[in-house]
Every structure is written in structure tokens, then in C-alpha cells.
UniProtKB/TrEMBL annotation:
This is Pyrrolo-quinoline quinone repeat domain-containing protein. It comes from the Bacteria. It holds the Pfam family PQQ_2. The lineage of its organism: Bacteria, Bacillati, Actinomycetota, Actinomycetes, Mycobacteriales. InterPro entries: PQQ_rpt_dom (IPR002372), Quinoprotein_ADH-like_sf (IPR011047), WD40/YVTN_repeat-like_dom_sf (IPR015943). SUPFAM superfamilies: Quinoprotein alcohol dehydrogenase-like (SSF50998). Residues 4-213 form the Pyrrolo-quinoline quinone repeat domain.
Amino acid sequence: MYNDGALVGYDGTSGQPRWRFPLQLLPNGCGVDDTRSTGTAPGAVVVVQCLRRVDWLHGDSKDPLLVGLDAMTGQVLWANDQHWFMQGRAVLSPAGVPVLRGDDLAMLDTRTGLPRWVRPLSEDARCTRDQQVGSVERGVVYVASCGDTAAVHVLDGQTGDDRTIQLPPPTDGTPTDDLSYELAATDADVVAFLVQGYRTDYRALLAVRTGSGDIATVRHPGYPVDVASFRSGQYPGPVLQLDDGVKPEDFTNLYLMARNLTIHARGVRIYQAADVSTRQRWAVVGDHIVTAAAMGNRDQNYAHLLVTVSADGTTSQRPSPCGRDTGGIVAAPGSVLVLCVRGKNDGYDVLGLR
């Protein structure tokens, strides 16, 4: 987390600081733009991306610098100034750091920061309007759609070998060239795409198992994509909320990626706050799904709640530890972290639950 002009690594069990990386060590004028990590295991790396303003011939632009830190000690391991932009979730797989530079896709080695391989995006991908690159357990994924075909490209994290999985056309006859494919969530080897029509009301959610190539169509996907969360890598992992959760008299649909299972959580109203990313709205804790972004009804004075959902959709609730503030939730080794939003400019308080 960022605190008092430094990136600080905390112990997930005790909440005590482990290390500090002062941001003044970055080059002058290079503003922090993004931070991602490969986890908490020994050998894990935290990668900081800062942007330098560059005056190119065609106007101002921003040039990225990547710095790799040891996640356990904060030691600087490497710096890469080869103009790569980080891709994938905020918590990346140990396979490497996916990066994009123009039409070139690469995987950086986590311990050296050097490209393990570089591959050009497929020709079909170059006619996709907004290219999105995601990370899965052992590599990198993106959708290439052009004309009447669409396919998921899966690149091996170690070798860069490219394998394609053809996506099925809509069953209602909607032309493929009218569709957009937005990355909604990833978990292990599963990646979910929200498919929508540009000129039609077609909408579907496709869950693709990149290992086997199996594809599941999820019913009633709602609007699960949060563009701001995607850009920062904060899109969901194990659990994806499929609707806005504002009708507690019905239910909130929660999709478990690994199990290809939709749970109807009854009586849960979710507070839709822009300062809580989609990744932080739900967490899988043991056999349950937990949120700190729930809101009570009028009889409860619309209080913020901590809600636990069981596999059969039944729920239990208690007052949120954030009080009257919105909360996000993250499962960490040894504890569950609740992130309490303390106003627009006041940052977060992080509470550890066991």
C-alpha cells in the first residue's frame, strides 16, 4: 500500500510493516501509475509502473518505467525502461509479468525484468477496437475478433507458444462483426468475457477454460464489467457479481469461476461505490463468499453490512467493521482484509479479520 510517500509492504497476519520503498527513489517526474504483484509466496515480486511525460513529434505522451521489488523484503531487483505497459490482474500469476508495447506482447521474467519472449498480436487482434490483455495461471490471454470470426489466444508464459480457442457465434443470429468482447474476470485457467452487440441488445458471458478449451455460456450476465477496475487490474477473480444487486427482494447473482456455478444470494443489496473496485466487492473465504459492500434496508437505516453467503444462497449479516463507510474485502494468507474507504482524499483503513 502507499503511505506517506512510500510503497509499504505489510505482513498479512500481524498487519505490521515489513518494508518501505520511498517513491523519491523513482526518476524525477515519473509519477506512479500502477502497482501489481505475483503474490505472497517466496520469490514473489511487486512491480511498480511510473509514467514519464515525453514530448514526441505528435504531441505529449507518457512513457512507462517498470521497477521490480522483492515482495518479502522490498529490495529492488530490476528496472525496465523499454516502454512496456503492464497488463493483467493486480495479482499476477508466478508465470511472469505480461506487458504490451504497441502491437507487441511480451512476458517479463519476474526476477530479472527481461522479456522471456516477445510476440506480435495476431492480425485479427489488430482490428479489435479496444485490445484487452489478461493473465491466467500459466500465461496470457486476449480475444482477436475480425469479420465473422472470434477466438481467444492463449500464450504460454514460459515459451510464448500461441494456442487459439474458437468462440461460438451467437445463437440468435447476431453477426459476429457486431460484437465487442470485454474481459470480465480471470481465475486460475478460467477467463470470462462479456459479449455485447454494438448495434443490438445481444449480451452473453462466456467462461473459457484455457487449459481444456471448454466454453460455458453463463445465463443472465447483467453488467459485470467495470472499465475503471479493468484498467487498474482490479477486475474480479474467483467470484464475479452478475448484476447490480439493488433488488434485495429478489437476489444477487454470484458466479464462481472455477466451479462454473451461479449462486442466487437472497436479500443482498450491494452499495455501488466507484471507490471500491469490482475485485474488492467479494472474496471467497473457505466455503463461503463474503462482502463488506452490502447495505441494509430502511429498517436498518441503510447501514453498511458484512454479509456471508453460503453455497445454497442463504446469507448471514452483521454490522460492517467500517461503520458508516464503504468497505472492500480481500482474502490474504492468514486473514481477511477489510478496506474501509475514509472519504475521497483520506485513503483507506485496513482491518484484519480472522
